[in-house]
């Protein structure tokens, strides 16, 4: 954005590596048109529906940045129950199994990170992602998906950096699931 | 309905077994090799599976190769096409249509994870399994 509106200023900006050029004072319609040209609308890869955002996540090129996940719920209790056709007993059984199994899966992921093999890391993160998704552990699923992509990109260090966050999300989920497990 | 669930993740496996166990015997295999061995054992005892739920992304032998192996074994045993097991692929892949076209000839359906019980049951009804 610049007050330099002389002929040739725009060309100079583009040449220097800018994606576009708007002059001040800002004209809202003109700015909107410029942004639409260069940016994907916010809704495009952050649809409210978790399934669609998941698809976008998995279609993303390895190594590229993931969208912020600060609005992802720890436990989508209602969504999970809905997927189980409101069968609370079934939901409780599956959640208990998940809570019992996941610490082993996290331990295995740590072992794989220590081994430095990105293929094993990717596979294990994928497994944790699937488990979390199955029980509506949305925040845990999101961080596991990030780790899976990092593993696929061969970046074991990035996965290692997420380990503490993964564990924190698991404990937060375990806490949130008490509303179901009692 | 005799079912085999092939899934490396414990939670997803438990979920499918709990849902499908209501309709009859439901066994589980944790990877592709395990699945083929379990499939063969059932075929040998003349109590084959009517339904196999098969995860696509598994380490070592993946779902796609397992699917092909099971169909080859069915063909080799002289099983008629209409008597072969119904195989439903489960996947968290981004584009289910790609999955469908990849496996079109060999599998009978696919489900995108996380599994929705109603969707799974609708699929089984469509395949006339329940």
List keywords for this structure.
heterodimer; A: about 180 residues; mainly alpha; Four Helix Bundle (Hemerythrin (Met), subunit A); 9 helices; B: about 130 residues; Rossmann fold; 5 helices; globular
Write up what this structure looks like.
The complex is a heterodimer of chains A (182) and B (130). Chain A has 182 residues and is mostly helical. Helix content of chain A is 66%, strand content 0%. Chain A contains nine helices and no strands. In chain A, helix 3 (50-59) packs parallel to helix 7. The N and C termini of chain A lie far apart (56 Å). The model of chain A is unreliable at 42-50 and 62-68 (pLDDT under 50). Chain B has one domain (3-126): Response regulator (Rossmann fold, 3-Layer(aba) Sandwich), CATH 3.40.50.2300. Chain B has helices at residues 10-20, 32-44, 63-76, 96-103, 117-126; strands at 3-6, 26-29, 51-55, 86-91, 109-112. Chain B is α/β, with parallel strands linked by helices. At the A-B interface, helix 3, helix 5 and helix 6 of A face helix 1 of B.
